Amino acid sequence: MGNMFNFKSTFSGYSVDDLQKAKSFYRDMLGIPIREEQDMGFALLLEGGNQPFIYPKPAHQPATFTVLNFVVENIDTTIESLETKGISFIHYESENLPQDEKGVLRGLKEKMGPDIAWFEDPAGNVLSVLQEV
């Protein structure tokens, strides 16, 4: 590694346009514990110690890529569970992303990566659930 700079830990972050809506989505709909940081935003307290920081940004533009991936045991039961909470999955119109009727790109049976499906938070940030085995 050579001349790597020294750091104690890392965390990522991304913006939202409405902090209260985001808080309700992550805490109440997804059931993720959060830690509030005064008016600056909140951290998601995820399994494994990852704590992405979500902060408000007035001219928020959602990323055009996936900002957070949730690795799950069973993608189908996870999707069903999230759909009962009112979350809908993104269906991309792309030959490069052949998704089934649930919105899942089935990589496992083709031995081409995980099974993965995408959904958005209220600010339009793209999240995914994926099954690796």
From TrEMBL:
Domain of life: Bacteria
PROSITE patterns in the record: VOC (PS51819)
SUPFAM superfamilies, alphabetized: Glyoxalase/Bleomycin resistance protein/Dihydroxybiphenyl dioxygenase
Domain (VOC) ranges: 8-132
Protein name: VOC domain-containing protein
Originating organism: Marivirga lumbricoides
